[in-house]
Amino acid sequence: MFQEKRQKTLRWPLWLMTTVAVGIALTSLLGGIFIGREALPPRSVTLEDGRVIGAGEIARIAEDVDFQLFWDVWQQVQEDYVYGPVAEKDLFYGALHGLVAGLGDPYTTFFDPKAANSFQTSLSGQFEGIGAEIGLREGQLVIVSPLRDSPAQLAGIAAGDAIYLIDETETAGLSIEDAVALIRGPKGTTVTLTVVHEGANASVEVPIHRAIIELSSVEWSVREDGIAVIDIFAFNEDTARRFNDAVVDVLSKGATGLVIDMRNNPGGFLDQAVVIAGEWVGNNTVVIERGEDGVMKDIEAQGVARLKDIPTVVIVNEGSASATEIVAGALQDYASAIIIGAQTFGKGSVQEYRELSDGSALKITIAEWLTPQGRSINKQGITPDEEVTFTEEDLAEGIDTQFERALSILNEEHGE
């Protein structure tokens, strides 16, 4: 019966990645879909007569690009800038930032060594900041999602909030990296964001006290009625392991239904999402990558589908992005779960994180991703099988209409 109900509610496409979401707590935690880390070999670069020389070969530059212009500007900044002297390393890293920013892709980012170290630290599950993810939507800096019980959420920051001021700095034209640098900071300090809540007309100032953010990527419980609730807050390096612990526990306790809550989950590592989706879809395609050459690559799970026979409802909202959308999209395409809640964020690109020789790093968009049925969700998101609203009034009264609807669907299956 439950399988029949899922098939009736699914909406199949006819054809056939934040936000980069960037963690304001420190750097770009969780927002991108990272598919491994690759240390690139050192590459010596010298310049002669305006030409770029590297590792015995001339770097390929278009004939109408005279790289000597770069050195002309470099020299003038060094000699004439009124607030000089400027450290050459700062100019060098600034130039690399500008090179990457020239792509116009908020998901492709250069990290200098300090920022790269902060990024790595943030993935360990503990960092200092306000605990939220930011991104760009049509050029506007927005909150992708606040982390649950974070200083940002407790201060009233919500998914979809447009950020217009960071303390006294206007965000118009500000890059995500610059915004991150302004918002992050040590615990105990305060940053004030001037935001317009989604659907509102007036701006409000929201002071937020930075703190140590502890990330538990997965939490779970089994209710007295036999329904297991698994919250996935992020797709970190330990998420698949934590999810496995949850699966073992809920199966041992004889769970008869599952609620998977991925609201305000901004995403993370692709491999973690693939492993988790495999608990329903088995050794099938979870996501399709489309590279810059148009070649399609199926990414398959290696799971044993331990949850495929347990009725499942997945809850998502506008703060669900990236790897979260991969899992939700796969379960929707295979009719493995009913997806309820609100339209997701719509991040459909794949980033690769590459460690460079001096400790800096490049996170670069290498592909777009599609659901197993070939749906592109970039800038569109996943449409739930059943949209369930969750208002501020509900929140104030402690009523979670989306969660209650998930329980109702599962109880209907049991004839209750």
TrEMBL record:
Transmembrane segments: 12-35
GO biological process, one term: proteolysis
GO cellular component terms attached to this protein's record: outer membrane-bounded periplasmic space
Keywords of the record: Hydrolase, Membrane, Protease, Serine protease, Transmembrane, Transmembrane helix
All copies of domain PDZ, residue ranges: 116-184
SMART domains to which the protein is assigned, alphabetical: PDZ (SM00228), TSPc (SM00245)
GO molecular function: endopeptidase activity; serine-type peptidase activity
InterPro entries named among the record's database cross-references: ClpP/crotonase-like_dom_sf, PDZ, PDZ_6, PDZ_sf, Peptidase_S41A, Tail-specific_protease
SUPFAM superfamilies: ClpP/crotonase (SSF52096), PDZ domain-like (SSF50156)
Family of this protein: Belongs to the peptidase S41A family.
Entry-linked PANTHER family: CARBOXY-TERMINAL PROCESSING PROTEASE CTPA, TAIL-SPECIFIC PROTEASE
Name used for this protein in its record: Peptidase S41
Species assigned in the record: Candidatus Uhrbacteria bacterium CG10_big_fil_rev_8_21_14_0_10_50_16
